[in-house]
Amino acid sequence: MPMSDEPQRVQPARLLELQNTAVLLLDGDLRLRYLNPAAENLFQVSHRRIAGQAWASVVAMSETMKTHLLDALDRQISFTERELALCTTSGQEMVVDFTVTAISPSGLLLEVIRRDRYIRIAQEEQLLAQQRAARELLRGMAHEIKNPLGGLRGAAQLLESELHDEAQKEYTQVIMREADRLRNLIDRMLGPNDLPQKQMMNIHQVLEHVRSLVGAEENDAVEVVREYDPSIPDLYGDSEQLIQAVLNLVRNAAQSGADRIILRSRTQRQVTIGQKRYRLAVRIDIVDNGKGIDEAMKEQIFYPMVTGRAEGTGLGLSIAQSMVNQHNGIIEFSSEPGNTVFTIFLPLEDA
User: Structural domain of residue 254, as residue ranges?
Assistant: First the structure.
């Protein structure tokens, strides 16, 4: 039997089933009449169970959104809202592109594309690019500063060898000490130069070590609360570097005026870091109730020498980010007064 050259016809309903975009149909009373599988996955609901219920039973619908939907029905128009913040009734928060099309006086077609993942990926890429740019800039500065510092220290040593008055040698000693201090500061700005000494390790041993150190430093002025997931598998990493990275973050939280810090460990699936996607990662949250990060500093907080404290060096966060980057991970944050969260993502696939 000869095969037909004509392509097989696909029913319109079947096309909606195959769409990656979440598609929903509302009636004139804003009740759900249809959800395609992508919409079921996005909103974590079943078409069979939710059909016939109000749209407000899926998302927390503001009066503004309700007005816009009813206006689109009444005027038979379409509209799109970009990067709209939605909160589902189950508590899930997301940022979406939201397109509404009136298909009849009693029907609205909703197309919803989730954007927060793309926004997060873009932010991560920007963060990693900033870190690379800062390190390249610092390497260039270090070269330009270390050479004259070495000459300055050498000249001070030669001068000291010619001096016989011990009182005068104090001045050359000051020159050499200050040259050494500046050199050490530059080395700290550059971050760790040694490759991580990786081996299988338990992340909770890292967190407990940091907790004991901070407890000793703060003399119980700060309460450190543990919220660990004991089922997290061991990961492949350098425990000393990770202790330093977490310690820098926790010290930063303690110095923000916080009296309560939460150390939380979880696993998270399908994590994208830069351009690479990992099936499973460890997520460590350091949460504090301090004063938060000034809005003007948020874009540059991981740069060296950026600090909001007069006595701070501005190196703690930069060094922490460098150490986590060497584990193919990343540090992200969100901050508002009374609730600042630094999150470390560490891929588990190397393990």
Answer: 199-347
